[in-house]
Every structure is written in structure tokens, then in C-alpha cells.
Amino acid sequence: MTAPAWLKTTGFYTLVAIIVIQALFPFYYAVLTSLEDGQALFDVNYLPAVFDLSNYRSMLSDGVFGKQIVNSVFVATVTVIISLFLAITASFALARIRFRGRGLLLLTILSVSMFPQIAVLSGLFELVRAFGLFNSLWSLVFSYMIFTLPFTVWVLTTFMRALPVEIEEAAIMDGASSFTIIRRIFVPLLWPAMVTTGLLAFIQAWNEFLFALTFLSTDAQRTVPVAIALISGRSEFEVPWGNIMAASVVVTLPLVVLVLIFQRRIVSGLTAGAVKG
């Protein structure tokens, strides 16, 4: 005996509502807390009782925090650009050029990203110090690529293997070089995969904490996750929850905007890049 249609519909929307509330409530409560100050921070409420922007003014008026946001944008953007450029060329070789040990090399590349950060921290610290990159944003770009590059290479190689070989052979017959084939043919077709992997790499670089805490030592060079963790109150016994939540909301909004923008581009890219086989 099957359940009535209304019962299935009710159960489905109830489950959707629970998932949405579980996902959005922490961010909603962070926004709610960021709009409160003083004693209101310690009053438990789920609807805005006051609308105080003093926490946002306090954070945004701090010139150091603005510089730290710029640092995070620089590190995440450069990491994504370099990772995608190297991943496209590497995936072309792994997907189209046959050589001994290709499968083992691909598995090795993927296994690198499985190591926990703490396991490679000491070795990376020695490399960063040897290259003279300590307390430099380039130390984060260098270290983040250890985890973003294997993932992007793996995903783009999988997508490139699914593309018909005939389009590449036709370009070779027309006299196109390997770089021209990658730039004029594969990049447009790989756009959905590039957007997906680039967005995930950006989020990972934006939110990374351990390497940023270890390799950067001054406030002017730090990125926003470390900056938020080091926000202090007027005394050692005070935790400025309002400022912390305001800073968290400010640095989370760009990620939300990026996801909304690139979500539409992923769908359009999947449709435009379809190849009839």
C-alpha cells in the first residue's frame, strides 16, 4: 500500500525545510549577532531587537582589516589563475598523450592532496624560509597550490578525456599548434569544469587558516581568517563577539556572491559547451 501523494509531498518539503534551516541558520545568527552591541549580545533572541551598525563601522574603519581583505583577494585570485593555467596544460598531456606510467602519475597527483596540512607543514616551512618567502603573500600562493593544483588537474583531465578526439584531429589538420588547440578549442569546452574547480580552489584559498597563521607574522600581511581569529577586546577577559561576527559576515558575502554568479555560468557553460557525439 503506497502512501498518499499529499503525504509524500509534505514529507519532501519538510525535509527540504529542515536542510535549508540547518544550512542558513548559523549565517543568519551571525548576521543577527553582528547587529547587536553591549549587553544585547548576551540576550538570546532569534529576531532582530536592535539594528546597530557600530560593529561594522568599527571593523571597516580599521585600515588593517581592509588591507587584510585585499591580501585574501590577492592570494586566492593568484592561486586560482596559476592553478588553472598549469592544470589545463597538465590535463592536456595526461588526457591526450600516451606514455608509460600515465595512470600512476595521475594517481600520485591526486594522492598528494590527501595529506593533512599538519603533515606537510614543517617541510613547507623549511622551503618557504629557504626561498625567502616568509611573511610574504607569495608563500601562501606557493603552499596553497600543493592542494588546489592536484584537484584541478584531476577534474580537468577527466573532462578532457570525455571530449571527442575528432575535434583535436581536425584542428591538427588545419595546422593548429598544441597551444592553439588548448586555447581555442579545449578552454571553451572546459569552461564548466574550470569554473567549478576555480571556485572551489578560491574558496579553499580564501578560508585557509593553518598556513596563513604559520607563514605570516605581521598584521599588514595576514589574511582574513587569521585576522578574525586574532581580534581581541579591550581587555584579555573580553571576547568581542560583535566585531568577530561583523568581520565574518563581511568576508563571507563575497563567497556567497561568487557562488550565485558562477552557478548561472556553470549551467550556461554546460549547455553551450555540449558536443554532439
User: What is the C-level CATH assignment of the largest domain?
Assistant: Mainly Alpha
Q: Do you know the CATH topology of the largest domain?
A: MetI-like fold
Q: What string, H for helix and E for strand, traces the elements in order?
A: HHHHHHHHHHHH
Summing up helix and strand content along with how strands pair, one would put the structural category as mainly alpha
Largest beta-sheet details: none
Q: What average pLDDT do the residues reach?
A: 82
| Total count of domains | 2
Low-pLDDT ranges: 269-277
Radius of gyration: 24 Å
* Span of the ends, CA to CA: 44 Å
Strand percentage lies at: under 5%
Oligomer: single chain
Please tally the helical runs, counting DSSP H or I stretches of 4 or more residues. 12
Report on this model:
It comes from Oceaniradius stylonematis. InterPro entries: BP-dep_ABC_trans_perm, MetI-like, MetI-like_sf. This protein is mainly α and 277 residues long. It folds into 2 domains: 3-42; 63-274, MetI-like fold (Orthogonal Bundle). It has helices at 5-34, 54-60, 63-96, 102-112, 117-130, 137-161, 165-173, 178-189, 191-207, 210-215, 224-229, 241-272. Residues 269-277 have low confidence and may be disordered.
